[in-house]
């Protein structure tokens, strides 16, 4: 659904103009009604018996080999016994070497969720619990919704976490929360990733938290989500949909915090074509991961018809390389050289992008904090600020922006605000 109420064609034209003048707009960011501000100091199982296709058994390495399946081997047309969303399929103790600082115990588990196609999919994730005695009612849960890490099985953060992942998990453990992080269905499990679909990603997160409460008996019903990038979009979606998606008798969603907001992402992709200039490496990586995933999961959309031979080679790279290497490789890439035709010419594809990636800007049922650095190179900042300005009209939304000397300072201020917000909603 197009929550912004304008056509894809009109919006793509607007996006083109916005991207072209993004640098010039930096000096006029306050015209969106958002003033950069410093942050205030914070206050302080039993496995299912159903039999799926086997997931990847390849050990994670630093070499980029292998690719996601090009079919839907991990999907089930009709749910069998034990395949309900959130049902645990497999569970094992997390090896000590894979636990992060601040964790007393951990689990590596696989569970059932629902994909963009409405079918049952397996997803994997990790649970870590802090040291000490759980409070009455159990440890409150923070779900970490990570950004793009790659779509190959070897890129699953449960097996190959980035520095950002380990830092974030350790940070929340140190604050007295159990942490749950999903790999998203199709990454490290059978089938093709469908992470580009926000509702499917949101379901993967909810079902991971539900499964985690079956894995251990010391977790609270109360939980919140913290997301960045792709995960930020899913977190925002959860602030609207989680009460509908979660099992009411076992989970109590309290709210969402999101940073690095990928606003108008689908329209940005729809605007790509032979005349496109270079774009920031983080945005380029997300764009190619998304198109590569769609290309694999839905051949009928004929993404290849839009691509040059160079573009097809980059789609293969996107299917194989994890984020750290891929971002380096796409830095400075002439993105227009990948396209033989404008993406906007494929109406079925652009409609899918709009429906799957549009962020809700109203109708939130739980509190949501949105933070955005004005120096963020992973998003088009003017579009993010425009979105924040629209979303904050909803009384459930708080927005914070940061203009600082460097990205590290912005990240610290954002974390301070998010820490205070989570402490308030999970108190």
UniProtKB/TrEMBL annotation:
Any one GO MF annotation of this record: triacylglycerol lipase activity
Keyword Zinc: no
Domain of life assignment: Bacteria
Signal peptide (residue range): 1-38
Key words of the record: Signal
Pfam families, sorted: LIP (PF03583)
Oxidoreductase found in the keyword field: no
Gene Ontology biological-process entries: lipid catabolic process
Disordered: region residues: 40-88
Biased composition range(s): Low complexity: 42-58
Family matches, as SUPFAM superfamilies: alpha/beta-Hydrolases
Protein name: Lipase
Taxon lineage: Bacteria, Bacillati, Actinomycetota, Actinomycetes, Mycobacteriales
């Amino acid at each position: 659904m197009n929550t912004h109420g304008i056509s894809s064609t009109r919006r793509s034209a607007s996006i083109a103009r916005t991207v072209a003048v993004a640098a010039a707009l930096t000096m006029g960011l306050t015209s969106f009604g958002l003033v950069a501000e410093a942050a205030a100091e914070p206050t302080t199982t039993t496995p299912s018996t159903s039999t799926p296709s086997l997931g990847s058994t390849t050990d994670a390495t630093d070499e980029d080999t292998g690719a996601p399946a090009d079919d839907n081997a991990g999907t089930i047309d009709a749910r069998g016994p034990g395949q309900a969303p959130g049902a645990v399929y497999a569970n094992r103790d997390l090896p000590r070497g894979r636990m992060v600082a601040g964790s007393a115990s951990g689990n590596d588990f696989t569970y059932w969720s629902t994909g963009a196609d409405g079918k049952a999919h397996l997803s994997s994730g990790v649970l870590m619990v802090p040291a000490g005695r759980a409070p009455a009612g159990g440890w409150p849960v923070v779900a970490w919704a990570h950004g793009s890490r790659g779509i190959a099985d070897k890129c699953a953060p449960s097996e190959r976490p980035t520095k950002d992942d380990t830092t974030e998990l350790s940070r929340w453990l140190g604050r007295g929360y159990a942490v749950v992080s999903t790999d998203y269905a199709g990454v490290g499990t059978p089938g093709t990733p469908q992470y580009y679909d926000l509702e499917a990603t949101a379901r993967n997160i909810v079902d991971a938290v539900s499964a985690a409460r079956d894995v251990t008996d010391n977790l609270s019903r109360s939980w919140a989500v913290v997301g960045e990038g792709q995960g930020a979009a899913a977190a925002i979606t959860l602030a609207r949909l989680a009460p509908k998606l979660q099992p009411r008798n076992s989970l109590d969603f309290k709210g969402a915090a999101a940073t690095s907001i990928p606003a108008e992402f689908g329209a940005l992709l729809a605007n790509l074509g032979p005349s496109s200039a270079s774009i920031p490496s983080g945005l380029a990586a997300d764009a190619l991961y998304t198109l590569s995933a769609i290309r694999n999961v839905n051949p009928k959309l004929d993404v290849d018809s839009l691509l040059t031979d160079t573009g097809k080679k980059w789609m293969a790279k996107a299917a194989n390389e994890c984020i750290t290497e891929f971002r380096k490789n796409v830095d400075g890439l002439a993105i227009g050289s990948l396209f033989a035709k404008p993406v906007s010419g494929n109406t079925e594809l652009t409609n899918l992008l709009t429906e799957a990636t549009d962020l809700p800007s109203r109708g939130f049922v739980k509190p949501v904090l949105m933070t955005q650095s004005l120096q963020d190179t992973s998003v088009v900042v003017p579009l993010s600020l425009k979105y924040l300005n629209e979303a904050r009209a909803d009384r459930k939304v708080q927005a914070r922006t940061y203009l600082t000397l460097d990205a590290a300072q912005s990240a610290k201020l954002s974390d301070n605000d998010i820490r205070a917000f989570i402490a308030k909603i999970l108190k």
